[in-house]
Amino acid sequence: DRHLKLHNPQVSELTFTNLFAWRNFYRFKSAEINGLLCIIARPCGSEPYALMPIGSLDSEVFEDTYKELRDYFKQMGWKPVFKKIAHDELVYFKTHVNSDEDMVYDRDNSDYLYSTMDLIHLKGKKYDGKRNHINKFKSKYDFSYVPLECSLIDECSRIMEEWCREKNCNCQEGDYCERQANMELLKNFRYLECKGALLYVNGRYEAFTAGEMLNGDTAVIHIEKANTAIPGLYTVINQQFLEKEWKDAAYVNREQDLGLEGMRKAKLSYNPLKMVDKYTVYTC
After folding, report:
1. Helices 178-187 and 153-167 sit at what angle, rounded to 10 degrees?
2. What mean pLDDT comes out for the span 5-24?
3. Helix (H, G, I), strand (E, B), or coil: what is residue 223?
């Protein structure tokens, strides 16, 4: 956590919660090199890669650290690859690639960044649809906002399991499994620096969400699950969670769309300020 605070991360992967929740899929290995936290991912069925070294960076420290990581990759018989690299961090790799073509834009894993106030107040014509969803929901349902406490983790797990049954997300060992990662977050919620909430709708918990601060001015939303049979429920929990918990954060990172058409359409419909572009870098 100390290294992350020094790094001021922009990409959603670089929080302790995210790294912890996804540790079983990515099979992370880590070491401190030259005062930087270096993490290598070894996902099942995919090439190993390194994340950006984490900590107080400068060119000299990065150069020495990069050389050690490169040598380790070569020792293991792996091609040196770095993933989830923010656009502003590409400058560190310029002398370690054959050409700019070796720095490949990863649209599917780039994050969506929004103005928190925009998503709380939903002002203007571009948010007409969102306000309509919320107004229809409020006219049809009795609901209450409930901050997430450990006593409500079982309700979140139930919502997650119901969502998974609808989406047929039966994960096998080695699969990219959102369900497993989300359950890890929930089971360890009391130990993580997260906030969460549920919506209680007509006598039943029907949606939950969880997030944390990514850096000094940006919150990141790790989970948002709801009963899709209730129109407007996702829009309401999105707006309520930001209003109740994150109004002091200037921005909110709502992570990536993974190249899924429906998710991309939904995230774009909230009018992001910008994308937090990520790259895969194939070094020499």
Report:
1. 180
2. 96
3. strand
In the three-class reduction of DSSP (H, G, I as helix; E, B as strand; rest coil), residue 252 is classed as: strand
The pLDDT tens digits for 52-61 are 999 999 999 9
Domain 112-255: give its CATH architecture: 3-Layer(aba) Sandwich (3.40)
Domain 2-110 matching CATH 3.30.70.1140: the answer reads no
Sheet order of strands, 36-41 included? 29-33, 36-41, 49-50, 81-86, 278-282, 103-105
The domain limits of the chain are: 2-110, 112-255
Q: What is the mean pLDDT of residues 93-98?
A: 92
3-state secondary structure of 236: helix
Comparing 2-110 with 112-255, is the CATH topology the same?
Answer: yes
End-to-end CA separation in angstroms for the chain: 30
CA torsion 162→165→171→172, rounded to 10°? Answer: 130
